[in-house]
Here is the input.
Amino acid sequence: MRWKTLKSEFLYKSEFGNLRKDRCQLPNGLVIENYHVNEYSDWVNAVVITKDKKLVLVKQYRYAANGIFLEIPSGKIEEWETNQEGILREVKEETGYISKIKPILLGEYFVNPATQNNKVITYLILDAYKAYEQDLDDTENIEVNLIGFDSFESLFKNKKILTQMFSISAYYMAKDYMRTNRLIKY
Here is the structure.
């Protein structure tokens, strides 16, 4: 069932990710000469909800899609961080929000296992409050938006905003967790 790697070489390496070209042999003997794999760090994201049940979102330009997106806070973890430390840092840097409640792990999933090696680890952060100013990288221009939890679903379902699959899947994971644990009524 597994493929065998016969040869592997990097075509490109950067701080953002690597592009690798492999020569692979399938179980049936077929050889694929040029199978490309994008290597990225794992990412973390979080559905952040304030004490008054507002969803903390970040609004930013996404170059590849050439649009302004409304998303949940996210980012890559640093080599020295745990996933939980990474998401707490990212949320604080991007939004200035923190919480006294430990982040709740909702799940993790591969982004695109056919061509990428990284995962997204999703958290829920409850009772968040603004305690800091944003601490953005030079390449970031992020506007913080607070909206009602249910409003987010309506916005993307009715195509009123641009968002991405990680925000949508995390939103539904959080909604299910909150319904199961009776934090919201549905």
Q: What stands out?
A: The mean pLDDT is 94. Residues 109 and 119 are 5 Å apart (CA to CA).
